[in-house]
């Protein structure tokens, strides 16, 4: 079996990361959640008051980029890597609705993208990697041997995200989540730098009516044939 690069892109809350994590585990590949990196930069911007409901000081964030250290550290108990921002575990904080509200604005900044894409390419340089995000098959690894594009209806995605946050104990409403998913879809797909588009050689999967198991079987089956 050869070591390849697997790019999994798609809209918010499609369950990409669950599938990507499972696939990486099965193949004994490295899994990289690129969204966690954009989320951690957003958390930094929030902590330093560079961004709020009413303003966003892009210049201050750009000037501070060298001070932002991002690392994934594998948690053997959980079986996956967690995000560390300047040596602090921020896994829980970056998943909440507050960060979700601002992350797409931060992700529009080209300087942020350049820094993160470079780090992502470094992490995948030896292949044997499954990376999920929005621009993995188009920008980060345009030559990836295998590319998936995952989508699902907006209602299904909002329902899944709502359930996830409620289980985590967050105090959110379904309507807030639906609006956030729509808002992020819009910004992510219309931004100038690296918009969310389907790579021409990507395999598209609509998982609205699929269970996680069905989805995994499909993706794993295609992957095995490629190896
Ligand atoms: O994947 P996740 O929903 O955690 O990503 C959060 C946000 O990070 C996305 O809505 C998008 O704005 C940004 N992102 C991106 N490029 C990536 C991964 C995530 O712009 N490769």
UniProtKB/TrEMBL annotation:
Residues 6-220 form the Cytidylate kinase domain. It is found in: Cytoplasm. GO terms for biological process: nucleobase-containing small molecule interconversion; pyrimidine nucleotide metabolic process. GO terms for cellular component: cytosol. It holds the Pfam family Cytidylate_kin. InterPro entries: Cytidylate_kin, Cytidylate_kinase_dom, P-loop_NTPase. Keywords: ATP-binding, Cytoplasm, Kinase, Nucleotide-binding, Transferase. Signal peptide: none annotated. Its main location: cytoplasm. This is Cytidylate kinase. It comes from Lutibacter profundi.
